[in-house]
Structures are given as structure tokens and as C-alpha cells.
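Lab notebook, page 48
Experiment: co-folding of the full assembly
Goal: obtain a model of how the components sit together before planning crosslinking
Operator: M.T.
Materials (sequences as entered):
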Amino acid sequence: MNIVDAVLAHSPALIVAVPLIGAFLTPLVSRLNDKLRNIFVILVLGLTSSLVLLLASDIFTKATQGLPSIHRYVFGSQDLALPVVRILFEVDGMSIFMAIISAILALMAVIYSWAFMKENTGLDKYYTLILLMTAGMLGMELTGDMFNFFVFLEITSISSCALIAFWTHKGEAVDAAFKYIVISAIGALFVLFAVALLYGQYNALNIAVLANAIQYTFLDKIALVLLIVALAMKAGIVPMHMWLPDAYGRAPSSVTLILIGATQASLYGVFRVCFTLYGGVFNSLVITSNTIGWVIATLAIITILMGVTMALRQSDFKRLIAYAAVAEIGYMLLGVGTRLASTYINDYGQITFPAYGATALTGSIFHIMNDALDVGLLFLVAGAIYYATKETSLNRMGGLARNMKYTSIFFIIGLLAVSGMPPMNGFASKLLIYESTYQLNPILAIIAILASIMLLAVFVKVFHSAFMGPALPKFKNVKEVSKSMLIAMGVIAAIIIVFGLFPNLVVENIVRPAADALIQHSSYITHVLGGI
Amino acid sequence: MIFNIPFIAVVALILIGLYAVVFKRNLIKMVIGITLIESGVNLFLITLGYREGSVAPIYTSSPGGIMSLPVPQALTLTSIVIGVAVLALMLSLVVHIYRHYGTLDARKIGRVEE
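Observation: model returned without errors.
Model output:
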């Protein structure tokens, strides 16, 4: 066994352990030198990202060749006598897909913070919290244990609350953090309650073991509702979205970027619950699956409309983007809803789903990554403008394209991508969602397309009021932002363009295996149970 | 257990906590509500593992007879530790909010004036 194989075999543990150890070393390194600490944090996250990419390449190569690709990592005794009490990490295509997003976002946020946060004090705590949050997100995505999921959920929410309130001199930031911690504390307790309900019935905490044993009793229905409500609350779906614009809009931009990752980790939880934990139930009960699918699709449409219409009337730059982010979450859910609502019983009495159901799921998973990149880029641009001008209101901006030409180019890229214009990546995934929802119900697709056009209108207005127009005298001395921020924005913009130009490559090699991993829930179960 | 009293207590605690979080305007009372929900969930976990007449699950010095299940107790311990961290963070945020706005009324804080 050479060293690459050894690293690969232990990578599920290392992906969580490296940022965790890095987090506790950061205050020590910070004592030595500030620059050294920044380099150290970037190195830690770079190492984490490369581990994620190593594991991802292994999983995706095996998955495209049709080989079993799930990695199982057992913590503690390998002795198989006591299956219940051990913690397992189970990494399939979907988990590693989400882990790639989280790791890349965290790395970009840290590079961006180098210049963006340099005038702040207390940066040792800032970087410690960022690393803790990254460890929490990655743990949520890789774990195969319900209780472990709860623990990582809490790690993520505690550290992200502290980060949202990082600018404590602004009362609004602390208020947003308080809102977020109330939401996430209640959400996490609901998750724990649901886990306890499942544990009380099946005497197991492992997701695969539970998914295998689940009977869909009355208590299971309560647990399902609690899990979906709690995770949807943390993902910012409409009736529970009120914390999201505050938290996204008032946190430092670099933190917002990671916060997108944390939101999507909760969304991953919804996917996992719907398709793996209750996957067997939904696959065998058409009516339940259809009902839940239609509920999710309706919520998604309301989320899209709400996000877009609220974005229209905002004058605060970051708050406006935050409402656009709410709308984008709706698109992802629309795909999931379509997939669940499209199951039917065919002529032979088997329960199956049409091809567009799979397309919908592929589109919505692809859109998770695109949303993270597009909305993330827009937030970084908003942060760059705040950094250069100390201005947040769109009414007091204007003519900035004269001073900040790279930033305005990045904003155009983000604008086109988020509103689903070709040749950006948002177009590729939104087209998949449109064409599949159109086959389920044309009205859904039409509303989704209209909302997308409204999103374009919103951002064209923003572009005009912030970047175009006469040069304002107060912005005469505004300069382009420093290199580290440009690098972070440039890398994300480059990924957006590459994904937009070669969507097939991405869909075939990364997104389809992730969608397959989610659909084939029985292989997830057998792979884990076979080893125990 | 008589009339499932622990489970009734669990539901009562969670509902009272939710009531406090949703309807109370004072931030401290909302924090108290969250702690009540947390106690309810912890009580539920402990009740799940308890059997009547059982002893603590310490294998080396057990007097014999049935033991209660140790896993829910381990889960509860973890949950309590996390709960303390959340509580401390929430209270520190409340302190900051009070310093900034001079009030704890949820209706009066966090408004952005255009």
C-alpha cells in the first residue's frame, strides 16, 4: 500500500480532522505572526480541499465505471460484534459533491478575508471559527450517523452565529446572529427529537440501518415532519426564511460565502432524509411520495416568487442579493419536488418514475453547486464595493465601473450566471429544471422562467445604479480592491465560465453520479450493512 | 411507569418552550424557552433508555439485575454540553444587543432605518 492509497483510505476522517486540528492550532500560530497565521489557515484549507478532491476523484471515477463507489470509514473498533454504538462515515457521490462545494467556498472565503478583514482586530478568533465551521459542514456531509449529524449541525450553527455577529459594533449584525441562533437551536433540537423517536423504535442511529428497518409508523411520520421542518428552516425555505436576508446581509461578505455552504449543508440533510432515510418508504408508497413532492414543489414556487419580489424592492446591496439567494434555493427544491411528484405505477404494477424525474434531480443537484458559485460571487463583489467605498445602499452608489473595472466584470459574470443566461453555468442547470418541471406541470416551469427573468431585471437595475452613471465626486479616490480579493473572485468567475461552457462534462462526471447515489438508496444500505 | 408521566412532561416542556419562543417579546424569555425545549428533549432521551427498577450501567460494579441503556445517556450528555455552549452564546448576544439598543424588546431592535 503506497502513501496515496493510505491517505485515500483515511481521507473521510482526515477531511474533518484537518480543519478541526487547524482550528485549535490557529490561536497558537496567531501568537507568532499575523501573516504566518493567514498562510497557515490557507494551507490547512488547501490541504482539506485537496483531500476532498482526491476522495472525489476516486469516487467519481468508480461511479462512472459502474463500480461500487461508497467509502465506509469506521471510527473505533473494527470488531463487528457491536454494530450499533460505533460512528461510521459513509461517503457516496452526493456527500462528496457537497463536500467539494463546502471546501472550495471555505478556501475562497479565507483567501478573500486576507485583504477584506485586515483592518479588524480579533482575527485569530475569526479564523478559528471559520475552520470550525468548515469542519462542521464537512462533518454533516460525510457522516453516516444521525446523532453525529446533529452534533456537526450544532458545531456549524454555533460557529456561524459567532461569525455573523463578528462586527459586534453594529447592532444589526448582533440582532441577525440572535435570530439565526434561535432558529438553529430550535431546528437542531427538533432534529435531536426526531433522532430520539427513531432510536426509540429501531434501536439504531446509523442512517443505513435505520433506512433498512424503517416501517413508516405514526412516530416515523412525526419524525419525518420534524426533520424536514427543522432542516428546511435552516435552509431558508419560505415560511421560515426571515432569518436569511438578515444573516446574509449583515455578516461580513467572506462569512456570507461560507454561510451559503452551511445553508446548503442543511439542504443536503433534506435530500438525505427524503431519498435515503425515507427512500424505501417513498419508493413503495406512490401517494405519499406524490403528496410530499407536490408540497415541496409548491413551497419551492412560493420561495422563488417571494425571493424575487422581495429582491425587487430592496435598496441595500447585500440584502438584495440575499433575497435572490432565497429564490435560488427555491429552484433546487423545485427539482426535488418534481422528482418525488413524478413517481407513478406503470402498466406492470411496478412503481417507477419517468426520465424527466431523473433530469429534475440532476438539474437541482447541479444547481446547488451553481447557486453557491453565482450567489457567492455576487456577495464577494458586494463586499469588495463595501471595502472600497464603505457604502451599502444602492441609492448612494454610482459610476463605480470607472474605478473598479475588474470588480464590475466579475459582477457582470455573476449577474448573468444567477439569472440563468447562457453561456454561464446557471443556464445549464436551470434549463434542466425548466424542461423537467414543464413535463410535470407547465405552470411550474412558466413561473420559474418568469422569476428568472425578473431576477435578471433586478440585477440589471443594480448594475446600472452601482456601476454605471456619472462619476460621483465622493468616489474620486476609490481604488480597485487588493489582489487577494480579486484572486478569490477571479477563481470563482473562472469556474462559473468553465462550467457554463462545458456543462456536459460536469453533469456526466460529477452531477450524475451524485444524483445516482441519491436515487439508488438500496446500494447505500447494502454497502453499509454488508460490512457490519 | 405510572401513566407515562415522563412522556407527558416531555411534551409539556417542549410546548411551553415553543410558546415562550414564539409569543414572548423579551429576548431573555425566548432564551429560557429554548432551554425548556432542550430539557424536554433531554428528558425524552433519558426516559427512552430507562427501565423500571434498573441500575446504572457500570459493568464492573453492578449488583446484578437489569441495567438501563447507556447509549441515550451518552447522547444526553453530549446534548447537554452543546446546550451549554448555545446558551452561553445566546446570552452573550443578548448582552451585546442590550448594550447597543438599551432594550430587550424584540419589537424595538434590529430595525434598519432607510
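Interpretation: Strands of chain A lie at 71-74, 88-91, 344-345, 351-352.
Next step: discuss with group before ordering constructs.
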